[in-house]
Amino acid sequence: DQKITLVDIVDEKNQKELTKIAEKYFRKLEKLSMTESLNDKYFFESGNFTLANNFALTKESLLFYYNVYEIKPYSGGNTTLEVPYKDIKHLISNKGLTYINSIN
Predict the structure, then answer these.
(1) If I label 91, which of 1, 11, 63, 85 is the partner at 20 to 30 A Cα–Cα?
(2) Could you tell me which of 3, 7, 20, 18 has the C-alpha nearest to residue 96?
(3) Is the dihedral of CA 24, 30, 31, 35 positive or negative?
(4) What is the pTM of this model?
(5) Torsion of CA 88, 9, 82, 77, to 10 degrees
């Protein structure tokens, strides 16, 4: 078995842009404005949004899974963040497309 990493799906050079797009979805999910601080309610280092280490490929989106305590207190539970492929298709590598197409 070979572990698929995020860099297999989106090249290293496109990770920053992927993170920016994912942050927009996170803020929408959490009902936060784009300027609201992430320091108060979340455990992101220096208040900077980061992608979860756990991710999955679905038919429609790249899914990030944050465990309890990873970005929120226990009472906040787990967080599942979906980033639709349609918004990141320009970032997905050929290898990533191969993985995604094998799902559908």
Answers:
(1) 1
(2) 7
(3) negative
(4) 0.92
(5) -150
